[in-house]
Every structure is written in structure tokens, then in C-alpha cells.
Amino acid sequence: MNRRWLVNKTNQEFLEYLSRNASISAVFAQVLVNRGLKDVKSIKDFLFPSIENLHDPFLMPDTGKAVKRIKTAMAKNETVLVCGDYDADGITSTALLVSTLRTLGLKTYYHIPNRMTEGYGFSKEGIKKAQTIGAGLIITVDCGISSAEEVSMSMSLGIDVIITDHHEPPARLPDALAIVNPRRADSEYPFKHLAGVGVAYKLAQALMQLTVNSEQLTEELLDLVAIGTVADSVPLTGENRILAAYGLKALNSNLDKPWIYSFKKTSGMDKKNFCSRTLSFTIIPRINAAGRLGNADEVVELFLTQDKDKAEEIALFLDEQNRKRQRIEEDVFKSALDMIDVHNLENAIVLHSPSWHQGVIGIVASRLVEIFYRPTFMFSVKDGIAKGSARSIPPFHIYKGISECSELLLAYGGHSQAAGLKILIENIPAFKEQINSLIQNTLSSENIIPTIEIDAGVELLEINSSLVKEIELLQPFGASNKPPVLGAKGLEIVNPRIVGSNHLKMRLKQKSTSIDTIGFDLGNLLPDLLTPNPELQVDIAFVPCINEWNGNTSLQLNLKALRPSS
């Protein structure tokens, strides 16, 4: 893929000043400046996140109202229904709040919508369940902010509704008893980017102040918060960074929890520690698989059960569901590729099919964005209704874009980089034309060329194990805090070859320094490197790391991009 290389640069004197005062290398100082960290205190707070720096939950809009209503439910011995969503963020949010309310002694049930029959979020089926169990209060998690009709229906039936959500609020909020959402226009909450599980956690924090051992009880919930936060790809900065860091520690130490033990065992992580990256290909896909293919209730039960045998049984079931999801996803991906004319790409990719499984189109849309760097909309069609998942590129706010086409849609919701929508099949051509026109008028030609952002230009001499250790302090990595990519120019190539499954292996040399380099899945570059030109030099973008093999460790460059030196 053709890409623009952007190299961050800062005044060298300032970098040296920061290096001296924070006791870090000048290269690492540049990496931190790129993340907006320009003084010793902000650097310390970021590199060593402290739970003491979490914000007061009562700063969140309507938290006080929500707590007051839940206290009334406790006093009246009311039944409460928690309504969640079917993805990892919604499921962890549900388990967290159900656990909290049960700890407080409330008779609490939950409802996760079926993706195929109910669709996303707070549904009328949830309200029916509330009636059946005699609930006087519904609390939504990771959904509800766009459910004005459902909220009105519930309130008219005498069932109060508290919304906790993190999605973009509509211009007019639902008439709920309380709406806890940091993105509200009137919100003064200092951090706007919590995941759904983060918002649920803030309510749990406020509620736990009603009981003893509140600090211990809220910290015990952080493992769930880490999973939902990483899964939802919210920025791993600010409060999210604190929650994810402490949650990962809990995940790697609380093996007495049946669900953690079972997930570790079934995912092959029983002798390894979880990090944000490993969560993304172990626990999170298994959680999502249940909701993508059917009913996600089993996952909530896994998080809540204290029975080790039951936990292992559910974890094995989720493992099989995930394998099934992978097979279905691959079929849909190949089908979608066949529909795309790569020589005549439009500003947006808009595809639909009656044969696509609704549960995997969001993942496939993400894969297409990675390949073609275009906002992508994929619709699964049934009975004349197209239910879609949309994924975007950083320059285009997809929720705002979809909002501009709202007259063509039956429903929609989401945030800047991902959204869900529903449309009549006959309106898809008009939607495609309108969204393409909108992107044409919103983005420049440069915006639709992907960029590789380089944190710092370096000499190979500056790459060492100490720098790698400094970079590791940035963990957990995630959205808005990716592993830093460094760049080096004018390198000689030594012994390029393919190893494993299409991985490019070589040594790169600059003056008297040479370092082993590997480019995963970059074996297609080899023919260009086997040139008879002895003066060929290359520029590279890379992440430095420590390679462990057969008990030995060595410095290695993880190649991200390569081009001939100018």
C-alpha cells in the first residue's frame, strides 16, 4: 500500500532538557512529547499510572440521581434488570453491574439482546423481561443513549430507567430517570473517552461507597474493566490507561476466579501473562463469538459463576464458537473481496448480501479498511431490511457522517470510528451515493492516503536494550497509545531471506552497527531487495524489541515499512 511517511520532530534542546530532568533517553523523550507529555509530572503520571488519580464518580452527570434511585430500590427490596449489549464491552459491563448490585443485596437479573432477532442495545424484549420478573428499575449498560422510544415505553409501564452509556448522545436525550454518560453536552466530567464498562465502573464506584470494604470491592472489578476497555478500542490514555493497567494486573494475579483460570487454560495462556495485545486475540474474540453467532448469556454466566467446572465448560464452548466464527468470517471476507473493483475504488466501500452472517460483518469491515483505507459499510440483508456495520479511517468521523444521511436510515448509533445502522434495501444505492459525496466534500485527497507516523528518526547506534525497556513503560498499548514506531535512513541490507510463513529476515547495517530485523508477512518485498545494485540503501520504520529464542535474548527490529533511500 502506498503510504505517506510522517516523522515527528521537536527542538533538540528541549528534548535534551526533558531527557536530563526526567532521566530518560532523548529518543524516548521525543516519543513522550508526541503523546503530549512535556513535563516531568505528566511523564511520571503516564508511565506510572495510579488508581489514586481516578476521578470522583459523582462528577459524572446524573450519578447522584442514579445512586439515589438504586438506594430506593434497596430500601423497597425491588427487583432490578440490567440491560446490556452483545459485544465484549457490553457483556463485561453487564457482569460488572450485576455483580455490584448483587453485592449490595439487590435481586438482580440481566438481559443481553440477541443480535439476530433484537439487534443492538436496549430493546422491547428487555422491557418484556422486566415485566415478567416484576422489575421496578432497568439500568442499561453500554447502550440506551439513542433508545428514546424504548425508554418512554418502559417509563409508561411504571418501570424506571437509568441509562449508563458512552456512545455519542443525540441532540435530544431520552426521558430517562438518569443518564450517566461522560459525552453529554452538559458533562463536566474530566475524561470523555471511557468505554461502556468504564462508565458502569464509575457507577459501581459510587454505589460501593454505600458498603464496607468499598475500595477492595471496586478494585476486584477491574479485570472486567480492562477487557471491555481494550475490546472497545477507546484511547488508552487518562482514566482508561489507569483502569487497563490495574485491570491487567488483576487478570494476571486473580487465578482463584473461575473465569480467569478457565480462559487462561482454554486460550493457551496458562503459563503466560495477559497484556493488551494478547487480550485481543485470546479472551476478547471468544467473548465476542458468542454474541456474534447467537446468545451471549453464557458469557455473563461465566463471569458470574463461582463453579470451576461450569466455568471451564462454558470456556470450552466459547472456544468452539470462536473457531466457528473464524470459518464464517473467512467466507464472508472472500465474498466481499470478490465484490470490490480494486481499480475503481470509490471514497467509501458499501457492500451488501443476503448470504452474509450479520455477526461477522463488523470484523470483515475492519479488515477491508486495513487493506483499502476507505470507510467501509457492510450490510446483511433479510426480508428487505439491511442491518449494517461500519468502520472508518481516522480522518472521517463515521457517526457524524451517518447522521448526515439519517433521512435514509431506519436506525443508527456509534462513535467516531465504528457504527451500526439499519436501512431498507431499496435505499442502499441512495445511501452509497450520499456517503461517497459526503466523504468527497469532507476529506482531501491526502486524507485517503494512509500514513505511517514515525515517532522519532534515529541512528541504529541509539537502539539498545535500555531504550526497549523505556518503551515497555508505555504498556498497556492500545488506541492513542500504539507501540512507538522509529525510523532510520540509509541502511545497508545483509542476507535478506524468507523464514517461516512469508516473514522477511535480514540484518540491517549503518556505519559500524548492524541489527537483526524481521518483517512479519513482508516476504513479498524480498524480490525488490535481491537487486544486483551494491549501493542499494533503504529507509525503514520499525519497532525495537527483544527477541527471545531457545532461552537466548537479542536485540531485534520489528519492521513495519521499508522504502528505497532517496
- Oligomeric state: single chain
Question: Structural class, from helix and strand content?
Answer: alpha/beta
Number of distinct helices: 21
User: What overall form do the CA principal axes indicate?
Assistant: globular
Alpha-carbon Rg, integer? 25 Å
How would you describe this protein?
It is a single chain. The chain is 41% helix and 21% strand. It has helices at 12-22, 26-34, 40-47, 63-76, 88-103, 124-133, 148-156, 196-208, 214-219, 222-231, 238-251, 258-266, 276-281, 283-293, 297-304, 308-339, 361-372, 398-403, 428-442, 465-472, 526-529, and strands at 4-7, 79-83, 107-111, 135-141, 160-164, 178-180, 349-353, 376-382, 385-391, 411-414, 418-424, 451-454, 456-457, 486-499, 503-510, 513-519, 538-549, 552-564. Strand 7 (349-353), helix 17 (361-372) and strand 8 form a beta-alpha-beta unit. Helix 5 (88-103) packs antiparallel against helix 10 (222-231) and helix 5 (88-103) packs across helix 15 (297-304). The two termini are 19 Å apart. The model has no long low-confidence stretch (mean pLDDT 94).
In terms of topology, how is this protein built?
Elements: E1 4-7, H1 12-22, H2 26-34, H3 40-47, H4 63-76, E2 79-83, H5 88-103, E3 107-111, H6 124-133, E4 135-141, H7 148-156, E5 160-164, E6 178-180, H8 196-208, H9 214-219, H10 222-231, H11 238-251, H12 258-266, H13 276-281, H14 283-293, H15 297-304, H16 308-339, E7 349-353, H17 361-372, E8 376-382, E9 385-391, H18 398-403, E10 411-414, E11 418-424, H19 428-442, E12 451-454, E13 456-457, H20 465-472, E14 486-499, E15 503-510, E16 513-519, H21 526-529, E17 538-549, E18 552-564
Parallel strand pairs: 1-12, 2-3, 2-4, 4-5, 5-6, 7-8, 13-14, 16-18
Antiparallel strand pairs: 8-9, 9-11, 10-11, 14-15, 14-17, 15-16, 17-18
Helix pairs in contact: 1-2, 4-8, 5-8, 5-10, 5-15, 8-10, 10-11, 12-16, 14-16, 15-16, 16-17
